[in-house]
Design goal:
This protein has 912 residues and is of the alpha/beta class. It is built from 30 helices and 40 strands. The radius of gyration is 35 Å and the shape is elongated. Keywords: ATP-binding, Ligase, Nucleotide-binding.
Length: 912
């Protein structure tokens, strides 16, 4: 039991949950906080603490906390609450104040650790959340009485110390805001992500910027801002070549200004004089208004405009200047969805203040920020602004008259401080048609049409004006939050274009957890779905498969592997083995499953990461069925009390599987079946019994258990049980019984189909069984099969081991179980002792076997796995049964295949 020392607070460890987890379905950061001597000091015993904290972060007054009303958290502090709880709220408020709004958090005490608390809070950007957590602890610590300060372990959250970077609290908050602006999605991408989330479409961020995957597998769509996976690269190239764009539009009869491409200033002047003043110069392939100069009315002005443009492109366009207002027409999927009149950055004089002061006043508008972080962008003074003022006979110290409009930019881009007025309801139908056709001719699914018109309510064919540019990747900001007028919901039609008819972009996700049988059941389910015609992405402890191809080798039972499968563009269904380690480490690799299954709960990995009891283990495993979508199905083992109890929290329809069908069916399961519930059961009978499906009060016989090769003629009970679970999952998913039957009739335990799971080799005159039985429950199930096979064989020889991170009692139990079923035992070590000294695991297994009465002279200790395998093979005589429980599955299997039997049995003097 941990006892806190009389010391300041200390962070023991931190975890970032990226999917549903033990504490919540919301991605969260959790850190373990030891309050030390502050365990005896709730907030109402710290004079001035609450007032000082609220003065620093007044937004805390809006936190409802458990009272669910503004001021609730302040009330909690006044009544007295622990500092872990306070830190949770501060971490949330810091993120929100920095521009990344989050509200969900919780703080819970830790069992067997006095003064320790799990502090959890939501985040949007992972790095922002971690840095905010560190800063929250520092702020809370700084407000404590001097003798109680000195929080330790902050590096567990993040190495970056914003307070140490200077500027005090205000400087730290500004740094956190800058981090948000770098890590947060821009307004265009953010609007699309929010709309996708509203529609229930899964969202995955693929990089640190704005590359987003919407949906999973084969149904996914990708986007970066308003560039989508359907955006033609040729169309983007055309839009980037302004001269080509103008030529294509002109040939289609659309109104565009006349002009030409030039490479020298003198050529620009000649072209301007041919066209007639005023003219515009701009880079051939520029964007965001960079390098554009308007209203050029002399040769010298044209030369200056050319020099400005040529810094952005070697080729420069000189073209007629249309008169009128600057508009951006947004076309999505061939339809005009929004129109904004763009107003260049400017100030309006008051007859008292200088232009510099007026700019400062405009930039104080809370809607203005740096880049695209807010609705509007700050006006920055640069050479272009100074030149434009000089052209008007002014400078920054000039004081314009009251009401005088002073332009600061030629172009009306929001990125240079411009503003937007919504004009969607005003545009003339002719202008709508012109914009639609322009987007279609260029070939863009999402296009921003720059349109000059004296009056957008009238056709430009009457008033003059037309298209000056067609832009790929147009920003949505001006339409989402215009300076004046109605905001337009333009993310919705964009998502509708990518996912028509209410599509969610989801593929079936089947998640399987439990203590034993996960890998085999996962392979069975994937085999059935493959047989039904789907391309299946599968994760297991042996690797990742896409269809029939293993694309990654190694333990792939965690969330990272799940995400890899869900990103695969050919996958039509995902079958995911889901181990406890990944759930504890970062949660699930998906937001919700269509089918979730818990196969069983048995003693394994106990005593690790605070999973000390079977009930603790069940709580971790139940995360899978608690994350099933509303219309999905949770599949539970009716024969396992802890698994069956998950029915209370599992989501979706409940389906049970049980080895006790027919007359042996327990009362609770019978009630479930009689009520029309789904259950898959094994009914005992000759030849291994039968598998029967119950659904909607119908009894549907499926097949004999012995028809499944993996059951070894119905003797391998654990694989019958695995098959029951697989049938329940695939039937709930809509696979027909004939397809399920045909698939299972072709599912064997061959090494190629199911490596390390009941692989059998009969080529040496004796039978070899290779199975990854790595805990007492798994070995017990395997030994039940050994007992059934013994009448057909001579001696039974077993190679036994267990990972070193199991409890001593579990390791000894392996020896006790083995002692009852084998005539010879070969004990070995694992390559990674996981903290055990060499030989310790073998000796503990030996203790268990000897205590069960196993003879010492028939027990062999061989630390190396391959050497132990060789000894087992040499010990085996014709008709013997050899059981190998490997760590290196492929290495041991290769040893079995390469073995050449000796002419005579090995003598004990020859043993290693």
């Amino acid at each position: 039991m941990h006892i806190s020392q009389a010391a300041p607070m200390r962070v023991l460890h931190a975890v970032t949950y990226r999917g549903p987890h033990l504490f919540s379905h919301t991605p969260m950061i959790r850190f373990r906080l030891d309050l030390g001597s502050l365990e005896e000091r709730p907030t109402n015993t710290l004079p001035g603490f609450s007032d000082a904290l609220v003065a620093l972060l007044p937004g805390l007054q809006e936190h409802g906390c458990s009272y669910r009303t503004p001021g609730g958290f302040i009330r909690r502090m006044q009544e007295g609450t622990w500092l872990g709880h306070v830190t949770e709220h501060v971490a949330l408020e810091l993120q929100s104040r920095a521009g990344s709004r989050v509200t969900r958090g919780k703080t819970r005490s830790v069992k067997n650790c006095r003064g320790c608390y799990n502090v959890l809070y939501a985040y949007r950007e992972e790095e922002v959340g971690l840095v905010a957590g560190r800063l929250a602890l520092q702020i809370v610590d700084s407000l404590l009485p001097a003798g109680l300060r000195g929080v330790r372990g902050l590096e567990e959250l993040h190495e970056r110390d914003l307070l140490a970077e200077g500027g005090g609290f205000d400087g730290a908050l500004m740094a956190l805001s800058r981090l948000v602006s770098r890590r947060a999605l821009g307004p265009t991408t953010r609007s699309l992500v929010h709309e996708a989330e509203r529609r229930g479409i899964p969202v995955m961020r693929l990089d640190a910027l704005s590359l987003i995957q919407l949906g999973h597998g084969k149904k996914q769509q990708r986007l970066r801002a308003s560039i989508t996976g359907r955006t033609s690269s040729i169309a983007v190239e055309i839009a980037g070549d302004k001269d080509l764009t103008k030529s294509l539009l002109a040939e289609a009869g659309l109104p565009v200004p006349k002009g030409a491409v030039v490479r020298t200033a003198e050529a620009a002047v000649q072209e301007a004089e041919r066209l007639g003043y005023p003219v515009v110069t701009k880079p051939l392939d520029g964007n965001h208004g960079r390098g554009v100069t308007l209203d050029l009315r002399s040769a010298e002005a044209v030369r200056q405009g050319f020099e400005h443009a040529v810094t952005h492109s070697r080729r420069v366009i000189v073209e007629q200047q249309y008169s009128g207002h600057d508009h951006r027409i947004l076309v999505i999927g061939g339809e005009v969805r929004a129109v904004a009149q763009r107003v260049p950055a400017h100030v309006v004089g008051d007859g008292e203040h200088s232009i510099a002061t007026l700019i400062e006043e405009v930039n104080r508008d809370p809607r203005r920020g740096t880049g695209h972080e807010k609705t509007l962008t700050r006006i920055e003074v640069d050479d272009h602004v100074l030149a434009l003022l000089a052209k008007a006979g002014m400078d920054l110290e000039s004081v314009p008259e009251e009401g005088q409009w002073v332009a600061l930019r030629d172009t009306a881009n929001l990125s240079t401080g411009g503003t937007a007025i919504d004009r969607t309801d005003d545009i003339h139908p002719d202008n709508v048609t012109i914009a639609r056709r322009a987007a279609q001719i260029v070939g863009l699914d999402v296009a921003g049409i720059d349109f000059l018109a004296p009056d957008i309510r009238r056709s430009v064919r009457e008033t003059g004006g037309g298209i000056v540019e067609v832009n790929a990747a147009p920003g949505f900001r001006m339409h989402l939050e215009p300076f004046e007028g109605w905001a337009r919901d333009i993310a919705r039609p964009a998502i509708d274009m990518l996912f028509p008819d209410g599509e969610t972009g989801r593929i079936p996700i089947i998640a399987i957890t439990g203590t034993n049988g996960k890998s085999t059941t996962t392979r069975m389910v994937a085999h059935i779905l493959n047989h039904s015609g789907l391309c299946v992405g599968m994760t297991s402890t042996s690797g990742i498969w896409v269809g029939k191809d293993r694309v990654w080798e190694g333990d792939a039972s965690g969330p990272r592997s799940a995400r890899m499968v869900l990103r695969e563009p050919t996958v039509e269904a995902a079958v995911l083995e889901t181990a406890r380690g990944g759930i504890l480490r970062e949660g699930l690799g998906f937001d919700e499953a269509d089918i979730g299954a818990v196969l069983n709960i048995a003693a394994d990995h106990l005593g690790i990461k605070e999973v000390d009891t079977l009930e603790d283990l069940a709580a971790v495993k139940s995360v899978v069925v608690e994350s099933v979508r509303r219309g999905g199905c949770s599949v539970l083992n009716a024969d396992d009390p802890l698994t069956r109890a998950m029915e209370r929290h599992a989501r979706g329809r409940i389906a049970f599987f049980s080895m006790r069908g027919g007359t042996q069916m327990p009362g609770a399961l019978r009630e479930h079946v009689e009520a029309g519930g789904l259950a898959v059961v094994h009914e005992e009978g000759p030849g291994g019994g039968d598998i029967v499906v119950h659904n909607d009060r119908r009894r549907l016989p499926l097949m004999g258990a012995a028809e499944i090769p993996a059951t070894l003629d119905g003797m391998a009970g654990f694989n019958i049980q695995n098959a029951l679970a697989a049938v329940a999952m695939t039937y709930a998913r809509g696979v027909s019984l004939p397809v399920i039957r045909a698939a299972l009739q072709g599912f064997s335990t061959s090494f190629e189909q199911s490596p390390g799971r009941l692989n059998i080799h009969d080529g040496h005159g004796f039978r070899v069984i290779l199975d990854y039985a790595h805990n007492p429950a798994g070995l017990g199930a395997l030994c039940d099969l050994v007992a059934k096979l013994r009448p057909r064989h001579g001696r039974a020889i077993g190679m036994i081991s267990i990972p070193g991170d199991r409890r001593d009692e579990d390791i000894r139990e392996m020896g006790r179980i083995a002692a009852a079923h084998f005539d010879e035992l070969v004990l070995r070590e694992r390559p990674d002792g996981r903290g055990r000294v060499p030989g310790e695991v073998m000796n503990l297994i030996a203790e268990g076997a000897l205590a069960a009465g196993f003879p010492e002279d028939r027990m062999h200790r061989v630390p190396d796995e391959l050497a132990a395998t060789d000894l087992c093979l040499r010990l085996s005589s014709p008709d013997d049964l050899l059981v190998l429980t490997p760590t290196s599955v492929e290495g041991v299997w290769a040893r079995v295949l390469a073995f050449v039997p000796q002419p005579a049995p090995v003598r004990r003097s020859e043993m290693a």
